Amino acid sequence: MEANRKIFDNDFLKKIKKDEEVLAVLLFGSYVKGGRSSDIDVCIVLMPEGYENLSLSEKRLKYLSLVSNKIDIQIFQQLPLYVKINILKDGKEIFCRNEDLFYGLAFQTIKDFESFKKYYYGYLEEITHE
């Protein structure tokens, strides 16, 4: 985990830790899987509350302005369910404010995906046979 923290400068990590809305930060995508990548994918997970889409986008832009253009930041709450599942499955945690809240959010996301997956896999099956 310590090597992953060297991706960011101290200013970014300090701001993340001071932002009480940030629950966790995870690395995901090809960088984590060891593949070649043009950027580093970062997911900021916010506290489980109701957010306006505009405020989520503003938070994303705020954090994007603090990092190099090699880092792409996403807000967990704005992502499609199937992407959230992949991040939870393969992501590497670099910061977590409250593990109980994070695991609760992860569990709820997994339950939501269980209800959705038959439609998702059915759709994928259909488009691969066209």
Notable traits:
alpha+beta, Beta Polymerase, domain 2, 4-stranded mixed β-sheet, 6 helices, 4 strands, 53% helix, globular
Helix content: 40-55%
Oligomer: single chain
Q: Judging from the principal axes of the Cα atoms, what is the shape?
A: globular
Q: What is the CATH-assigned architecture?
A: 2-Layer Sandwich
Q: Within the largest sheet, what's the order of strands?
A: 3-2-1-4
Class from helix and strand fractions = alpha+beta
- N- to C-terminal separation? 43 Å
Q: Given the structure, what is the number of helices?
A: 6
Radius of gyration: 16 Å
What do you see in this structure?
- By secondary structure, the chain is α+β, with helices and mostly antiparallel strands.
- The protein has one domain (about 10-130): Beta Polymerase, domain 2, CATH 3.30.460.
- Helices cover about 55% and strands about 20% of the residues.
- The protein has a 4-stranded mixed sheet with strand order 3-2-1-4, with helices on both faces.
- Strand 2, helix 4 and strand 3 form a beta-alpha-beta unit.
- The longest helix has 30 residues, at about 100-130.
- It is globular.
